[in-house]
Protein backbone atom coordinates (compact mmCIF):
# COMPACT_ATOMS: atom_id res chain seq x y z
CA UNK A 1 0.00 0.00 0.00
CA UNK A 2 1.01 3.60 -0.63
CA UNK A 3 -0.25 6.92 0.71
CA UNK A 4 -1.34 10.12 -0.98
CA UNK A 5 -2.42 13.41 0.62
CA UNK A 6 -4.57 16.02 -1.11
CA UNK A 7 -6.17 19.25 0.09
CA UNK A 8 -9.02 20.67 -1.95
CA UNK A 9 -11.30 22.66 0.30
CA UNK A 10 -13.65 21.04 2.76
CA UNK A 11 -12.48 17.50 3.41
CA UNK A 12 -16.09 16.30 3.44
CA UNK A 13 -16.22 16.93 -0.30
CA UNK A 14 -12.88 15.28 -1.03
CA UNK A 15 -13.65 11.83 0.37
CA UNK A 16 -16.38 10.54 -1.95
CA UNK A 17 -14.55 11.02 -5.28
CA UNK A 18 -11.68 8.82 -4.12
CA UNK A 19 -13.73 6.44 -2.00
CA UNK A 20 -15.56 5.12 -5.05
CA UNK A 21 -12.54 3.70 -6.91
CA UNK A 22 -11.14 0.17 -6.84
CA UNK A 23 -7.74 -0.01 -5.21
CA UNK A 24 -8.51 2.64 -2.60
CA UNK A 25 -8.24 1.04 0.81
CA UNK A 26 -9.17 4.11 2.91
CA UNK A 27 -9.79 7.86 2.66
CA UNK A 28 -9.33 9.68 5.96
CA UNK A 29 -10.30 13.30 6.59
CA UNK A 30 -7.74 15.26 8.57
CA UNK A 31 -5.36 18.16 8.93
CA UNK A 32 -1.81 18.73 7.69
CA UNK A 33 0.75 21.41 7.04
CA UNK A 34 0.52 23.25 10.35
CA UNK A 35 2.61 23.81 13.46
CA UNK A 36 0.29 22.52 16.22
CA UNK A 37 0.41 18.77 16.98
CA UNK A 38 -2.96 16.97 16.96
CA UNK A 39 -5.11 20.03 16.21
CA UNK A 40 -8.85 20.03 16.70
CA UNK A 41 -11.37 21.16 14.12
CA UNK A 42 -12.04 24.30 16.15
CA UNK A 43 -8.32 25.13 16.28
CA UNK A 44 -7.91 24.65 12.52
CA UNK A 45 -11.00 26.81 11.83
CA UNK A 46 -9.47 29.57 13.97
CA UNK A 47 -6.76 30.00 11.27
CA UNK A 48 -4.03 29.99 13.94
CA UNK A 49 -2.51 26.51 13.45
CA UNK A 50 -1.40 26.73 9.82
CA UNK A 51 -3.19 23.47 9.00
CA UNK A 52 -5.12 22.69 5.85
CA UNK A 53 -8.08 20.31 5.70
CA UNK A 54 -6.97 17.34 3.62
CA UNK A 55 -7.57 13.69 2.88
CA UNK A 56 -5.06 10.89 3.33
CA UNK A 57 -5.58 8.05 0.88
CA UNK A 58 -4.22 4.56 1.36
CA UNK A 59 -4.15 2.83 -2.02
CA UNK A 60 -2.86 -0.21 -3.85
CA UNK A 61 -0.65 1.05 -6.70
CA UNK A 62 -1.08 -2.23 -8.58
CA UNK A 63 -4.79 -1.39 -8.95
CA UNK A 64 -4.83 2.42 -9.12
CA UNK A 65 -1.79 4.57 -9.81
CA UNK A 66 -0.76 7.80 -8.15
CA UNK A 67 -1.18 9.46 -11.56
CA UNK A 68 -4.82 8.35 -11.60
CA UNK A 69 -5.31 9.80 -8.12
CA UNK A 70 -3.85 13.13 -9.23
CA UNK A 71 -6.22 13.15 -12.22
CA UNK A 72 -9.17 12.53 -9.89
CA UNK A 73 -7.89 15.32 -7.66
CA UNK A 74 -7.83 17.92 -10.45
CA UNK A 75 -11.41 17.02 -11.31
CA UNK A 76 -12.58 17.83 -7.74
CA UNK A 77 -11.12 21.30 -7.24
CA UNK A 78 -10.87 24.78 -8.70
CA UNK A 79 -7.09 24.93 -9.19
CA UNK A 80 -7.27 28.65 -9.98
CA UNK A 81 -8.42 29.63 -6.47
CA UNK A 82 -5.62 29.82 -3.89
CA UNK A 83 -7.79 31.23 -1.10
CA UNK A 84 -10.21 28.38 -0.56
CA UNK A 85 -12.61 26.28 -2.55
CA UNK A 86 -16.13 27.28 -3.52
CA UNK A 87 -18.05 28.45 -0.42
CA UNK A 88 -15.17 27.45 1.90
CA UNK A 89 -12.76 30.38 2.24
CA UNK A 90 -9.44 30.71 4.01
CA UNK A 91 -5.99 29.21 4.24
CA UNK A 92 -7.29 26.01 5.82
CA UNK A 93 -9.18 25.29 2.57
CA UNK A 94 -6.39 26.03 0.09
CA UNK A 95 -5.70 23.50 -2.69
CA UNK A 96 -2.48 21.53 -2.22
CA UNK A 97 -0.99 18.28 -3.46
CA UNK A 98 1.26 17.03 -0.66
CA UNK A 99 3.88 14.65 -2.04
CA UNK A 100 5.46 11.86 0.01
CA UNK A 101 8.41 11.07 -2.28
CA UNK A 102 10.25 12.34 -5.35
CA UNK A 103 8.15 10.24 -7.73
CA UNK A 104 4.90 11.72 -6.42
CA UNK A 105 6.39 15.22 -6.73
CA UNK A 106 7.41 14.53 -10.32
CA UNK A 107 3.98 13.15 -11.25
CA UNK A 108 2.16 16.05 -9.59
CA UNK A 109 4.34 18.73 -11.21
CA UNK A 110 4.02 17.17 -14.67
CA UNK A 111 0.26 16.86 -14.28
CA UNK A 112 -0.04 20.48 -13.11
CA UNK A 113 1.96 21.65 -16.14
CA UNK A 114 -0.20 19.60 -18.51
CA UNK A 115 -3.36 21.04 -16.95
CA UNK A 116 -1.99 24.58 -17.29
CA UNK A 117 -1.21 23.96 -20.97
CA UNK A 118 -4.55 22.26 -21.68
CA UNK A 119 -6.46 25.51 -22.15
CA UNK A 120 -9.22 24.30 -19.83
CA UNK A 121 -8.69 27.29 -17.52
CA UNK A 122 -8.25 30.95 -18.45
CA UNK A 123 -6.65 31.76 -15.07
CA UNK A 124 -3.28 30.42 -13.81
CA UNK A 125 -3.17 27.11 -11.93
CA UNK A 126 -2.30 28.12 -8.36
CA UNK A 127 -2.60 24.77 -6.57
CA UNK A 128 0.68 24.26 -4.73
CA UNK A 129 2.75 21.09 -4.62
CA UNK A 130 4.42 20.74 -1.25
CA UNK A 131 6.28 18.10 0.75
CA UNK A 132 3.99 16.13 3.05
CA UNK A 133 3.98 17.01 6.71
CA UNK A 134 2.46 15.09 9.62
CA UNK A 135 -1.17 14.19 8.92
CA UNK A 136 -3.61 14.22 11.82
CA UNK A 137 -6.94 12.42 11.38
CA UNK A 138 -9.95 14.62 12.05
CA UNK A 139 -12.49 13.82 14.72
CA UNK A 140 -14.68 10.76 14.07
CA UNK A 141 -17.78 12.80 13.24
CA UNK A 142 -15.93 14.13 10.15
CA UNK A 143 -15.06 10.66 8.82
CA UNK A 144 -17.29 9.40 5.96
CA UNK A 145 -19.45 12.49 6.41
CA UNK A 146 -21.08 12.10 3.00
CA UNK A 147 -22.41 8.68 4.03
CA UNK A 148 -23.60 9.73 7.48
CA UNK A 149 -25.23 13.04 6.50
CA UNK A 150 -26.22 12.92 2.81
CA UNK A 151 -28.52 15.96 3.06
CA UNK A 152 -25.87 18.21 4.61
CA UNK A 153 -23.25 16.86 2.23
CA UNK A 154 -25.41 17.57 -0.82
CA UNK A 155 -26.01 21.14 0.34
CA UNK A 156 -22.30 21.73 1.07
CA UNK A 157 -21.27 20.08 -2.19
CA UNK A 158 -23.75 21.89 -4.47
CA UNK A 159 -21.49 24.78 -5.60
CA UNK A 160 -18.61 22.40 -6.17
CA UNK A 161 -20.77 19.95 -8.11
CA UNK A 162 -22.12 22.68 -10.41
CA UNK A 163 -18.64 24.05 -11.08
CA UNK A 164 -17.16 20.62 -11.77
CA UNK A 165 -19.96 19.68 -14.14
CA UNK A 166 -19.50 22.94 -16.05
CA UNK A 167 -15.69 22.59 -16.14
CA UNK A 168 -15.31 18.87 -16.77
CA UNK A 169 -18.64 17.75 -18.20
CA UNK A 170 -18.55 13.98 -18.50
CA UNK A 171 -14.73 13.65 -18.48
TrEMBL record:
Its EC number is 1.8.4.11. It comes from the Bacteria. GO terms for molecular function: peptide-methionine (S)-S-oxide reductase activity. Residues 4-153 form the Peptide methionine sulphoxide reductase MsrA domain. InterPro entries: Met_Sox_Rdtase_MsrA_dom, Met_Sox_Rdtase_MsrA_sf. The active site is at residue 10. Keywords: Oxidoreductase. It catalyses: [thioredoxin]-disulfide + L-methionine + H2O = L-methionine (S)-S-oxide + [thioredoxin]-dithiol; L-methionyl-[protein] + [thioredoxin]-disulfide + H2O = L-methionyl-(S)-S-oxide-[protein] + [thioredoxin]-dithiol. Pfam families: PMSR (PF01625). Belongs to the MsrA Met sulfoxide reductase family. NCBIfam families: msrA. Has an important function as a repair enzyme for proteins that have been inactivated by oxidation. Catalyzes the reversible oxidation-reduction of methionine sulfoxide in proteins to methionine. This is Peptide methionine sulfoxide reductase MsrA. It comes from Enterococcus camelliae.
Amino acid sequence: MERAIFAGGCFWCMVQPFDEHPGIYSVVSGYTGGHVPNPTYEQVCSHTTGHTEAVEILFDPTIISYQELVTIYWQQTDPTDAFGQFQDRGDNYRPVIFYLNDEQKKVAEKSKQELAESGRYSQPIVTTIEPAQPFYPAEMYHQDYYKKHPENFARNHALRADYLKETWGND
